[in-house]
Each structure stands twice: as C-alpha cells, then as structure tokens.
Amino acid sequence: MSVQNNLVNKGDRNKIYFLVVVIAALLGTNAYLFFKDKHETKRFVSVSTEKDRLQLEVEKIEVELDNVNNLNVSLSEKLLAEQNQAREKISQLKIALQQGVLTKEQLEDAKKEIRVLKEFVKSYSEKILKLEGENSDLKTEVDSLQAYVNNAGRNTEELTKKNAELNEKVKTGSALKASNVGITAYKVKNSGKNIVVTKAGTAKKLIVSFDIVPNQLAKKDYHKIYLRVFDPAGNLIADSDNMFQADGQEMQYSSSTSISFNDDNTSYSMDWINPNKFIKGQYSIILYADGFTMGRAEIILK
C-alpha cells in the first residue's frame, strides 16, 4: 500500500513539473512576443516620425526655393534648368514620402537626397543673390549714367539756347541802322530834271536819304535795303509780288536797292516813284536792312 502511494505521488510530481515547464515556456514566449511587438511598435513610431520630419524638410526646401524665385531677377537658361531639376526632385520626394510605410533604407536614401537638395538650394540662393546684387549695381550705374546724360542734355539745351540768343544778339547788333533819315518830294520835268515840291498835285516821286550808324559788327559788304511807303490813309503802296522777311514776319515792300557798306560815314539815298497820284496828307516810310527795321521818316504834302 505504501509503495503504491509513493508511485502515485511521484507521477503527480512529474505532472506538476511538466506543467511548470509548459507555463514557464508560455510565459517566456508571451514575454518575447510582448517585447518584440513593443519594439516593432517603437520602430514603426520612430520610422513614421522620421518620415513626417523629412516631409517637413522637403516642404521647407520648396518654400526657400520659392522665396529665391520671388526676387526680381532674370534667370539664365542654366539657372532655369537647375531650378527645374530641383523642383522635379522635390516632387519625387514628396510622392515617395506620402506613400505607405517606408523601410529604413528608403528613409536613409530620402535623407541623402534631401541633404543634396539643401546644398543645391543654398548654392542656388547664393547665385541668385549675387546676380541680384550685380543687377542692382548695374541699375545704379545705368541710373547714374542716365542722370549724367539728362544733365548733359539739359546743359546742351541751355548752351544751345544761349548760343541762339547770343547769335540773335549778334545778328541784331550787326544789322545796319539808319540815321538822319529824310524824305523829299520831287516833280520830274520832261527833261528828266528833278524839282523839289511840297504839294501833292505836282509831286511824282520821293527820294529817301539816310546815313548809316557806325557799326563794327556789320559786314563790310553789299546790303539789301527795303522801303515801305504808306499813304495818308495808312495804306501800304506796294506790289503784291514784292515780299521779304523782316522782324520775324513776311511782308510786302514798295521798293528795294543794294548799298555798299564800308563803315565810312557814306550817305545813301533811294528813289521811289509813286505808281498812283499823290494826295494831300502825311506819307510815312520805313526802311529795313538785314531782317530788321532800319529807320523811319514822314513827309507832309499840301
């Protein structure tokens, strides 16, 4: 009986030992699975966080590239090509990071590409800023040159104006001026002899005499003298075909002649035959030379 009890107790103990081993194995397996799952969860969280960080980096690079392009700079074909390549790479990275779970190797590759992009954007930014600085310096130079040209233009205009004014003064100063202007009425006899008269009924022509004011600026040469005669009513007696320029306008003249001027106090005269009959009253004459009024005089016929 005692032997039988011992056998039973031994069998129960073996069962207990086996159960203990099984339970320990299960506990170990559960612990392994728990820690493995926890590690995988941590790894997934870590990978996911890294992916989000890389997405943010790509977006920052794109913003930096946009900011550089907002500068008012004309890009060369080479810079445009570099920019297009960078934008294409950014687009590829954004698509890759938006996909499902990435492996560690894929994340490492993305990191490398992002580092390359960062270096490119930095270099690209430096090129654009340098180009902007050069453009700014060039614009300053152009503005300075334009200001110089404008100032030179104004100076040239002023100089041209002053020269024109000076030339006009010289022209005015060199024009002949008459002095001692006098008018005498004559009748002409059949013999051709001139007889001084004071009555309109017998007068046939007027002789205008004058001296020239000494003028060192005037040319010692032949000068054309124009005469305008006005009747007592103030009407100009002139042929409509006789035109000349004086005092800045075109006008008709009654008669003209040429004189030789030598600035030697020579006296001059010119005849004018009235194509009409003289009438009583005051006749006025104006002399012109070198485009300016030369002198005036009047005569009264009874």
Residue fraction in strands: 15-25%
Helix content: 40-55%
Order of helices and strands: HHHEEEEEEEEEE
Indicate the overall shape.
rod-shaped
N-C termini distance = 197 Å
Main attributes?
single chain; 302 residues; alpha+beta; Immunoglobulin-like; 2 domains; 4-stranded antiparallel β-sheet; 3 helices; 10 strands; 53% helix; 24% strand; rod-shaped
Write structural notes for this entry:
- This protein is of the alpha+beta class and 302 residues long.
- It has 2 domains: 2-134; 178-301, Immunoglobulin-like (Sandwich).
- It is 53% helix and 24% strand.
- The chain is built from 3 helices and 10 strands; from the N terminus they run αααββββββββββ.
- The chain has helices at 2-69, 77-98, 104-174; strands spanning 178-188, 194-197, 205-212, 222-230, 243-246, 249-252, 255-260, 267-273, 281-289, 292-301.
- The strands form 3 sheets. It has a 4-stranded antiparallel β-sheet with strand order 2-1-3-8, with no helix packed on it. The chain has a 4-stranded antiparallel β-sheet with strand order 7-4-9-10, with no helix packed on it. It has a two-stranded antiparallel sheet with strand order 5-6.
- A hairpin with a 5-residue loop joins β1 and β2.
- α1 runs antiparallel to α2 and α1 (2-69) packs parallel to α3 (104-174).
- Keywords: Coiled coil, Membrane, Transmembrane, Transmembrane helix.
- The chain crosses the membrane at residues 16-35.
- Residues 51-169 form a coiled coil.
